[in-house]
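ingest -> validate -> predict -> emit
validate: passed (alphabet ok, no gaps, 410 aa)
predict: started
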Amino acid sequence: MPTVPHSPESQTNPPSAASPPKTTATLDGPPLPSMAVSATTIVVPPSVPMVSLLGSGDEILRLVERELRAHVLVRGNEIIISGAPADNAFAVRVFDELIALVGQGGHLRPDAVSQALHMLRNGATERPADVLSLNILSRRGRTIRPKTLNQKRYVDAIDEHTIVFGIGPAGTGKTYLAMAKAVQALQAKQVNRIILTRPAVEAGERLGYLPGTLYDKIDPYLRPLYDALHDMIDPDSIPRLTQAGTIEVAPLAYMRGRSLNDAFIVLDEAQNTTPEQMKMFLTRLGFGSKMVVTGDVTQVDLPGGQRSGLRVVQSILDGVDDVAFTHLSSVDVVRHRLVGHIVDAYARFDAENADQTDGPLTGLSYPSQGEHRAPPVEVRSAGPGPRATRRTDAERPDSAVRRGAAPPRR
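emit:
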């Protein structure tokens, strides 16, 4: 899209000797002399409605004004920016991107505007209009698209690589975008089926003793995947596609021994896989298939201090061709704004207490110092025969017998 026309109106006439230079107040900092102030006019094309650009009740305009050092004045379809030349140039870039977004049919929301400002302020190489206008799926007037620069890079990596790891905190859209790409690939007939899986690991709760069939017991683990599917596919067609095997939602244990061809496979909550499970899953890859693995290494629920397969695989597969690792951060959180602040607060807490633990306190994969665990049962060989003897209770270092207490009743 061509750059929006704007015309600088210089106000740099030197003051006369008889009168001191006038000053103009700015949003931040001391007043600037009038000779340092210039004005730039942006003419908004007729195809871009001003109400879409400025927002309902000028909501978007007020948000932009709070983030700019230059003064903004709107008259009809003209936006007049006045301030220091550098501030004016940044403001022009901001409005150019917002006009381009609206011109491409995008709907400006405060979070999208904030992301555009963040990208421009940090010197991103990609244009915000290109990042925020990439549509993946559209259904019932709702469009699924990346909302941050890292999400855009994550989506691009899925397009360009066979195996992609999306690693980041909660609320960064890792699973949602992966499932949207899976549905897109199915609709475009790039694959014949979608397989969604996650490990059935309790997050501190015990569901195994609940009544019901095996399906009833594992369904709570898989419910988030079904919820995301309902946002992307007609809910009435999901049972039909599931019965036909076009869409399969199953625990990770059901993947063992299979070869998955012509499929788009998404492994969610991968931080709760062991290294052995991660190897088993990755080696299920068949011809014409694509894999996306998502997880948050700070929320590991594996029991007994087991290592997370998602942590280990980064060092194992780093540099392997056609495998990509994409990392997201609190900047990419697209839930309530407090979620990003919570993620940052926990990260600071982990950093401050790193010397008191073998791993992140908020990632349950490593025990903190002072946490005692019973040693594993040792199996000793009894010679060439098949028999083996185990340590008795009295032989264990932490045994009640060795402490002088009565042994437990068997």
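The chain is about 30% helix and 15% strand.
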